[in-house]
Amino acid sequence: MCLTENYGALVELNCETDFVARNEKFIELVSNLASIAHQERCISIDELKNAKYESISTVQEAIMNGTSVLGEKLELSKLCYLETKDGVVAGYVHGDVRGLGKTGALVALQSPGDKAKLQEIGKQIAMHIVAMKPEALSIDDLDQMKLKNERSIIEEQVRSLNKPEEVAKKIVDGRMAKYYEEVVLLEQKFIKDDKMKVSDFIKSSEVSAIKLSDYKLLVLGSAN
């Protein structure tokens, strides 16, 4: 991960063993790739691969050289980034070794408030994201086909209970609310205080008028 006040980048570089993952040369290479992705504002893997590496080669050539030196195939597999103009980008990497780990998250907060306080709030939300792995920022951001299928499954389950229509509808709505709590970031119970949702945590902060505008989650080895 490479992070400044209003821009953050996360990259995933795969190797074959934990032994290489702990190697100083591998750690340095990953750190450099994150810095280049950040500095060049790369928006795709191909763009990052073709970016200059230490002014004498490309990132792709540096990865190939790393494969030769470390004796394992290295593969640049993921890149994600966030930017905001009216606030901060915060982040967190779990198992952090100089910004390296197996799971990382970026959070964009829009607010005219104190930047240092926003960074701390954003980091806490990023930690929550790494732990809870939400699928969407808000209910409106959920995949509508998946949402429709989920509701159909719940309705079928409730139908088998043979409840009156109004009672059945309340049960369906309750189970859908529970589903939202599981997969929607703003609806999830905040990991540091399960008496409030993430949205409540944001509202309760000392900094006013905060909007959580976007987030990115990168999980080592995942399909997304």
From TrEMBL:
Pfam families per UniProt: EF_TS
Any one GO CC term of the record: mitochondrion
Subcellular location: Mitochondrion
Domain called Translation elongation factor EFTs/EF1B dimerisation: residue spans: 8-216
PROSITE patterns (alphabetical): EF_TS_2
This protein's UniProt keywords: Elongation factor, Mitochondrion, Protein biosynthesis
Family: Belongs to the EF-Ts family.
Function: Associates with the EF-Tu.GDP complex and induces the exchange of GDP to GTP. It remains bound to the aminoacyl-tRNA.EF-Tu.GTP complex up to the GTP hydrolysis stage on the ribosome.
Protein name, per record: Elongation factor Ts, mitochondrial
